[in-house]
Amino acid sequence: MHVIPSLRNEIRMTWVRLAGHTPARRFRGSRALKVNLGSGNRGHPGWVNVDFMALPNVNCVWDCRQSLPFEDESVRVIFSEHFFEHLDYTEEIPAILAESLRVLQPGGFIRIVVPDAGKYLRAYCESGWQALIALRELKPDHFDRYTNCAYGTKMELINEIFRQAYTHKFAFDDETLVHLLLHCGFAHASRAEFGRSLDPELAIDFADRAHESLYVEGVKGGSIRS
């Protein structure tokens, strides 16, 4: 029953929103912040690690689907790894990107990391399993260490990547993510690579997901830093 955990999360996020004045007060007057959206328990030292659950390394409990607890132009860079695929494409993502533009300083960067759906589709179209095995790092008998199960067909694997049971809501390729950032108002957007960024401080990607990840960066209009 997927509806039960989804309902629990919505109730938890509603409570976070109702009790969410403290983070906004805490960051009042702050400048040049480094923000990690949807960090889960993989927060980075020196960053504002935002998640709706009070997990280890989360220092800002907030439901960022509707707003961010930061003042206008108070954030220098935004990083988000394997979070945007869990959001609704037509409502939640545009709202987050609008808030990101509001809080970013002119010339500020956003770096978004998601599963690379285009890479998976190209691997699916190749004959046999070898491309998918290499991409997902499957064990013998197509066993997936992330899900603790074996796939009988390639389409079962594709559905796991795109849906992750019930938690994934959109599958991205680089063209779509670049288009999205530009459509939502970023002045520039382009594909990046693992460990390489327009701003060196944004190259904080976790290596264990690099083989299946897509990296895209956007720049808010203004004086672009070198």
Can you give a write-up of this model?
This protein is an alpha/beta fold. The protein has two domains: 3-116 and 172-219, Vaccinia Virus protein VP39 (Rossmann fold, 3-Layer(aba) Sandwich); 118-163, no CATH class. Helices cover 31% and strands 20% of the residues. The chain has seven helices and nine strands. The strands form two sheets. Strands 3-2-1-4-5-9-8 form a seven-stranded mixed β-sheet. Strand 6 and strand 7 (149-150) form a beta hairpin. Helix 4 packs antiparallel against helix 5 (130-136) and helix 4 (117-125) runs antiparallel to helix 6.
CATH class of the largest domain: Alpha Beta
Q: Write the CATH fold name of the largest domain.
A: Rossmann fold
Q: What's the overall geometry? A: globular
Spatial extent as radius of gyration: 18 Å
How many individual β-strands? 9
Per CATH, the superfamily of the largest domain is Vaccinia Virus protein VP39
The assigned structural class equals alpha/beta
Task: Provide key terms for this protein.
226 residues, Rossmann fold, 2 domains, 7-stranded mixed β-sheet, 9 strands
How does the SSE layout of this entry go?
Elements: H1 3-18, H2 21-26, E1 33-37, E2 48-51, E3 60-61, E4 75-81, H3 92-103, E5 104-115, H4 117-125, H5 130-136, E6 143-144, E7 149-150, H6 154-163, H7 174-183, E8 188-192, E9 213-219
Parallel strand pairs: 1-2, 1-4, 2-3, 4-5
Antiparallel strand pairs: 5-9, 6-7, 8-9
